[in-house]
Amino acid sequence: MPMTPTVRLKFLSIYMREARERAGVEPREVAKLLGRDATRVTKMEKGREGLTPGDAKMLLDRYDVHAEDQKLEIVELARTRSQRGRWANHRAIVPLQQRAYYDFEQDSDSIRHYGAELVPGLLQTEAYTRAMLARSSRVDPACADDIVATRQERQEAIFRREAVRAAFVLSESCLRRRIGGNAIMHEQIRHLIALARQRGVQVQVLPFDSEGAGNTFGFTMLRIPAPTSAPPLEMVYVENLHDADYLDGDPEVADYSNLWSRLTADALGLEQSKRFLKGVADQYA
Known about the structure:
Elements (H helix, E strand, L loop, with lengths): L4 H19 L3 H8 L3 H8 L7 H10 L5 H10 L18 H11 L3 E6 L10 H10 L8 H16 L5 E7 H5 L5 H15 L4 E6 L12 E6 L8 E7 L4 E4 L2 H17 L3 H15 L1
Helix pairs in contact: 1-4, 2-3, 4-5, 7-8, 10-12
């Protein structure tokens, strides 16, 4: 599957930053070489702004990267082009801060998500999504169809790919918070059970009476295979009301990996979770 432009830029930024740091070159020198200010160099090294292939090759020479195969791989990444129309039509409804996440998600081979309050978007039924949107004061009702269509596209892109592994830990709050009434919740919980039986998908429930403290906020961990021989990119995505953050530093990823391990240990096992979900679905029937 072709890599999205967002992910190509992210890998390019990682490789260029690491090469600069190994060479001991300061960002201000990079800015001078490129004829840019330091702010734009920072954006480039965070994957928010690209490089031309010529500029990439010039910087790699300055960074003393001599391996021709490595240079060719990195310069090729710089040939990123935006996909015209990618965010047109119903996909134009996706907020700017979430568009990068959708691309990262699409190119991931491992997705781990903790849901603290609501059923995560990848697991929602259409009825649940519409009921949730109807309750939101921040969503224009005229946009509901576009949001539903975009969410269903995401689900199909993930759950129809055999190469991806998706794991979810859901706080019992996700199951008990009534969205749209009993019929919608019954359908939603039955949908979770069906997904939990799908190959490559794991769903665990963290019940209220778990000995673990749980977590008050949701987060997503993604693993994206590298387009070169380098290690994969591991990142954590967290969002709030007005913004989103992508954490890819080793300390942050390690902290969230430890948190994920605690959550999965405190949650019910896979078979226990299926039985728990069935019991909740029966209560909504």
